[in-house]
Design a protein that fits this description.
By secondary structure, the chain is mainly alpha-helical. The chain is built from eight helices and two strands. The chain has a two-stranded antiparallel sheet. The N terminus is likely disordered.
Length: 189
């Protein structure tokens, strides 16, 4: 037990040292040496940090190109609304959040010009939320920016290493990458 605690403390100290050594920008001139055997907690942290770097860079570029109000969750919401629209209750189910939280998110997106509500042609009692042209533009722009970010990572890592990384991640993750319940999953934990 003392050995496990010592190993955990050593791993935590190593992680603190790595964090403190500089959250160097992706592609910094100084390559980071790989630890001989990284502690188990480092893998999920590195995967989360990689996601965060991509998302932060995406949103910085979206802001520069006319979408300053976009937030990371909004992309999940746009995907969950889809091209045909949806109701607040269904949006909540798809995202794994409450109907009330979905309603607040829709309100925010409506104020930003990304969604609009209208009658459901199949049921006059229901309102359907639909994406506006502004939202469709943000999605298309996001796809182009993600392509640019991937190309930058390929320059840094090398095309073959990036392809291998993507292939390896496909081996250990679910086949369908469109898990839209991530906002609810983060909130529930």
């Amino acid at each position: 037990m003392a050995e496990a605690a010592g190993a955990a403390a050593t791993g935590a100290a190593r992680a603190a040292t790595v964090r403190g050594a500089g959250a160097a920008a992706v592609g910094a001139a100084e390559p980071v040496e790989a630890a001989a055997e990284a502690p188990g907690f480092e893998l999920p942290l590195r995967l989360l940090l990689a996601f965060r770097v991509l998302i932060d860079e995406l949103h910085a570029e979206l802001a520069r190109r006319g979408h300053p109000g976009m937030r990371p969750m909004h992309g999940f919401v746009f995907q969950a609304i889809g091209p045909g629209g949806t109701t607040a209750a269904e949006l909540g189910r798809r995202l794994g959040i409450s109907k009330q939280a979905a309603g607040k998110t829709i309100d925010t997106l409506e104020q930003l010009g990304y969604t609009e509500r209208g009658p459901d042609p199949g049921d006059a009692r229901r309102k359907v939320v639909r994406l506006t042209e502004r939202a469709v533009d943000a999605l298309a722009l996001s796809a182009r920016i993600f392509d640019d970010l991937r190309a930058r990572w390929a320059e840094i890592l090398g095309t073959e290493r990036l392809r291998a990384l993507e292939a390896d991640l496909r081996l250990v993750t679910p086949r369908d990458p469109w898990r839209l319940d991530v906002p609810g999953w983060f909130g529930d934990q």
